[in-house]
Specification:
The chain has 290 residues and is α/β, with parallel strands linked by helices. The chain is 31% helix and 31% strand. The protein has 2 domains: 82 residues, Alpha-Beta Plaits (2-Layer Sandwich); 193 residues, Rossmann fold (3-Layer(aba) Sandwich). The strands form 3 sheets. A 7-stranded mixed β-sheet has the order 10-9-8-11-12-14-13, with helices on both faces. A 4-stranded antiparallel β-sheet has the order 2-3-1-4, covered by helices on one side. Strands 5-6-7 form a 3-stranded mixed β-sheet, with helices on one face. Strand 9, helix 6 and strand 10 form a beta-alpha-beta unit.
């Protein structure tokens, strides 16, 4: 008798999860069903019927294009018979306190907020934005210090929308989140509804190069280093004179490179946060800078 449970292919990849900001749209376009971050890499899950030598080849080629010095020895393919990876993940993804007052929960939980707590509810369908990755956490920590009620906020590379949603819950007057992946925009809007926010936050399809319009009080970009450097001029234009900029997705070893680049753009470093090998940097745009 045929077993009707799905058979899965798990592709374990040794590459920094920060590359997922660039890779995830391509990965999902190859019919992947999900991505799970790990300490030194990530795992991509496919239904067995969607995995083929051609998919294997395409994935390797894209990884070689994006990840420096990548070769096939850093990718392992396993068949997982009758294992529901999503249900297994759900059993291990419980509400957690990121800080004393901030709780992040998946959409299948129903955590009861205590007085003074803020709860973010996320449908974890994307590679980034569950709140588990250090770069996301560093942005949230810096937002706690910098974001003031009434600010206008731009979230570049919005992903699941977690940073945009938190900005609104912290009192931002208006929030615009942009991302270049239509699936991501759909997920962000779903998370907006889960958090019962019906105004003040908008998600649009686009990228850092596409931004134009009135500058913002606070700009946040949790993207890998190379993309941050590419869109540096756009980030400068998007930040009003005297406004603030929060950057993450940056390794500690790249700190000096990023600080020097931002100082050339008319910014001065204010708080910074470090967690494991990751760093979050906050800057103030000098008054009078265009």
């Amino acid at each position: 008798m045929k077993n009707e449970q799905a058979q899965w292919v798990a592709v374990s990849i040794q590459a920094l999860p920060s590359y997922l900001e660039t890779l995830s749209a391509f990965i999902f376009a190859t019919r992947a069903q999900g991505i799970q971050e790990e300490e030194n890499g990530f795992v991509v899950f496919y239904e067995a019927v969607d995995w083929s030598p051609e998919t294997h080849h395409l994935l390797v080629k894209e990884l070689q294009r994006i990840v420096p010095d990548f070769d096939e020895s850093r990718m392992q393919v396993q068949i997982r018979q009758n294992e529901d990876w999503l249900e297994n993940w759900k059993r291990n993804f419980k509400p957690f306190h990121l800080t004393e007052t901030l709780v992040i929960q998946p959409d299948w939980e129903n955590y009861r907020a205590q007085p003074g707590e803020t709860v973010l509810t996320i449908a974890p369908k994307m590679a980034f934005g569950t709140g588990h990755h250090e770069s996301t956490q560093l942005c949230l920590f810096l937002m706690d210090e910098i974001l003031q009620p009434g600010m206008s906020v731009l979230d570049v590379g919005a992903g699941s929308g977690i940073l945009s949603i938190y900005a609104k819950k912290k009192g931002a007057a208006s929030v615009l989140g942009i991302d270049n992946d239509p699936v991501t925009i759909e997920n962000a809007n779903e998370n907006l509804a889960l958090n019962r926010i019906d105004s003040g936050v908008e998600f649009k399809l686009g990228d850092g190069h596409a931004f134009s319009g009135k500058p913002f009080d606070l700009v946040i970009a949790n993207i890998n280093r190379n993309i941050l450097l590419e869109i540096m001029e756009n980030l400068r234009q998007a930040t009003r004179s005297g406004g603030k900029l929060i950057l993450s997705g940056i390794l500690k070893t790249d700190r000096s490179l990023m600080v020097d680049a931002l100082e050339e753009q008319g910014f001065e470093l204010i708080p910074e946060k470090v967690k494991n090998e990751w760093i979050g940097l906050a800057f103030k745009k000098k008054a009078g800078s265009k």
